[in-house]
Structures are given as structure tokens and as C-alpha cells.
Amino acid sequence: MQKYICPTCDYIYDPAKGDPDSGIVPGTAFEDIPEDWECPDCGVAKEDFEPYNEE
Predict the structure, then answer these.
(1) 47 backbone dihedrals φ, ψ, rounded to 5°
(2) How far apart are the C-alpha atoms of 48 and 44, rounded to whole Å?
(3) CA-based angle 14:49:46, to the nearest 5?
């Protein structure tokens, strides 16, 4: 599954890990996260995240 990165603080959303502190269970695709979800580290909106490609 595609990972996404926060352009402000470089937090990486990994679908395999989810974001349990925000109620996002492991295995949740980025597209399936609620639209009002924000970066857990800096508060940037979900819409500002960018696809993350590991080199």
C-alpha cells in the first residue's frame, strides 16, 4: 500500500501501521482515512499530504 508524507514535518503515514492514537487501525489505506484527519505531529490537513516513494 502507498505511504504518504507530510510536507511540513516529514511524518510518514504507513497504512500497515495506521495511526492508532487517532483511531486509524492498521491496514487502513490513506484514501479510507476520514477527510478531517490531520497529521498527528503538526496538524497539517490530510489533503496536503503527498505520496511517499521510498528510494
Answers:
(1) -65, -20
(2) 7
(3) 90
Model pLDDT, residue 49: 98
Residue 54, pLDDT > 90, answer: no
Residue 21: exposed, middle, or buried by beta-carbon count in 10 A (0-12, 13-18, 19+)? Answer: exposed
For cell 510518514, the residue is 12
| Element of type H or E holding 12 | strand 12-13
pLDDT digits (tens, 9 = 90+) for 6-50: 999 999 999 999 999 999 999 999 999 999 999 999 999 999 999
In this structure, the strands spanning 50-52 and 12-13 are unpaired
On whether the CB atoms of residues 16 and 24 are closer than 8 A, the answer is no
